[in-house]
Amino acid sequence: MLYWLTALSDGGDVFNLFRYITFRAGGAFLTALLFGFIFGPPLINVLRRRQGKGQPIREDGPDGHFVKAGTPTMGGLLIVGALLTSTLLWARLDNPFVWLVLFVTMSFAAIGFADDYAKVRKQDTAGVPGKVRILLGLVIAALAAWWATMYHPEPLQNQLALPVFKNVLIDMGLFFIPFSVIVIVGSANAVNLTDGLDGLAIMPVMIAAGTLGVIAYAVGRVDFTEYLDVHYVPGTGEILIFSAAMFGGGLGFLWYNAPPAAVFMGDTGSLALGGALGAIAVATKHEIVLAIVGGLFVAEALSVIVQVLYFKRTGKRVFLMAPIHHHYEKKGWAEPQIVIRFWIISLILAMIGLATLKVR
């Protein structure tokens, strides 16, 4: 919205700053951060009053989790609110990719909110039936994938770009949309599975958002793409503002989610943020790089898949408990130890993902 102030500029005044994506990204970050600091306490108080017993705790979970009983959930509302406000304020609203990522984020946030509400109201960890959540996610992701394809340059439509390999594209044809659906829905559910310890999910999400934001800015500038030998996707640079807002909103939320958490993100936040990461990857043609940058989320999801399949086949478990962060809890690791080490892993993976821009 503030971009339109450039109409008042003569090219040498303060209004000219709003032409620059980097300036507006900084503004989006600060706006989202302040949003979190200002609205965090009142939102947590409202959630605490309305929810009473807070998020129900799994009876088969680690023993240490029962001390968290009564902690309110749906804290993702704080992140989503900060993200939406900052993006609408600082991004160009005539950019289709901005609306694409907002559509995915808000739609998955709505699914997560319904699930959190059902859990709190019934005081049951089941929430909305899994098949319903997956079906809704598939529909949203399919629309987003089609949307992205319509705005990709014609040479890149339905193409899968491979990192490291220069100018290599795989024509997926009609399979590109199902593939993109898997990326978006898989990302949403992988982040959801990771959100099991105080502060565990939000920092890796922020790291991934910052990394993908840099990638989006790079592939949205023709001079950068020529230098880096990556594919040019016009308009994606504006996604940096969305990513900066996600980083700022996440940082504001972490202030209240740091151990011991005053509020949980809930599915409202985890599904929304995971879906957003998937949508950014599809928009920028960096779906495979997302699997590297978000490798922690991939590992968490795979640990659940392996655990379920192996148990059904043999009646035995590979891990003491899945997702894998609970496995380390069962082994006696302290919660902060798990969280910080997983943060370090996320940062390393992000650096590897960024390196793919130049390693060709």
UniProtKB/TrEMBL annotation:
Q: Where are the transmembrane segments?
A: 20-44, 65-91, 97-118, 130-148, 168-188, 200-219, 239-256, 263-282, 288-311, 338-357
The protein's superkingdom reads: Bacteria
Q: Report which reactions are catalysed by this protein.
A: UDP-N-acetyl-alpha-D-muramoyl-L-alanyl-gamma-D-glutamyl-meso-2,6-diaminopimeloyl-D-alanyl-D-alanine + di-trans,octa-cis-undecaprenyl phosphate = di-trans,octa-cis-undecaprenyl diphospho-N-acetyl-alpha-D-muramoyl-L-alanyl-D-glutamyl-meso-2,6-diaminopimeloyl-D-alanyl-D-alanine + UMP
The protein's annotated pathway: Cell wall biogenesis; peptidoglycan biosynthesis
Q: Name one GO biological process term.
A: regulation of cell shape
List the cofactors.
Mg(2+)
Return the protein name: Phospho-N-acetylmuramoyl-pentapeptide-transferase
